[in-house]
Amino acid sequence: MASCEGCYQPDSDGIPIDLFVSKKNPRHRIITSSGFSLRFTDSSANLVFSVDPPSIRGSPAPPTFIKRLLTDASGNLLISIAHKQKAMWQGFREDSSEEKDVIFRVERTIKTLTRLEFQVFLPNNKSDLKMRGSPFYRSCTIYNGDSVLAQTSLMYKLGLQKKLLVPRNRFRLTIFPDGYAHRALIVALTAIFFHGRKLWI
To answer: Sign of torsion, CA 58 60 66 71?
Structure first.
């Protein structure tokens, strides 16, 4: 699987780590369905990853099938996310769009009103990973075989008498120890899972 050496290094000591996901409309842009970014922050609200439309980075523009760019907190481009077919996505290394630099390929296998499921293929064409869940409930679980790498969930805050739901455009991504080395891949897959659900495309 794709690793993330040199980027965010959690000091978790084997404990699951949380990233907090929010939708953001970039400054000085007219709000459109393709103009939103996803920001992934840590518990101190420090930016860890960002998934943005290519226009945010300016010229030269990537091919039109490149729909989102995943960068780290320093703005280093890690993965270019392509959407070439209706139910298929690809992730390319950094700013490449060549087949030799494909990191992963994702195919949607189930789509209903309440459930989505995806197969994730790595460069050896072996389907190591699966994603399944419900975008409406911001619920997505990423599996490697029987092992859970990461999971998303809605967030709540305590009120005077009951728990209050945090706005649906913010949710939590929990990365478990088996997923530490593949954080950038997990973030890219999370963005793909919520593609088209009034979240970022």
So the answer is: negative
CA distance 109 to 184: 23
Cis check: omega of the bond before 167, within 30 degrees of 0? no
Each residue's pLDDT tens digit in the chain (201 positions)?
544 444 555 555 678 999 999 987 655 444 444 557 899 999 899 999 999 988 766 556 667 787 899 999 999 999 999 987 888 999 999 988 898 999 999 999 999 888 999 999 988 766 679 999 998 888 999 999 889 999 999 876 555 455 555 566 789 999 999 888 889 999 999 999 987 554 444
Instruction: Compute the distance between CA of residue 89 and CA of residue 34 in angstroms, rounded to an integer.
Output: 16
Q: CA neighbours within 13 Å on the CB side: how many for 26? A: 18
In contact, 132 and 115? CB cutoff 8 Å: yes
Chain-centre distance for alpha carbon 24: 14
Closest Cα partner for 79 from 195, 1, 187?
Answer: 187
Q: What is the pTM of this model?
A: 0.83
Instruction: Calculate the dihedral angle through the C-alpha atoms of 127, 122, 196, 30, rounding to the nearest 10 degrees.
Output: 170
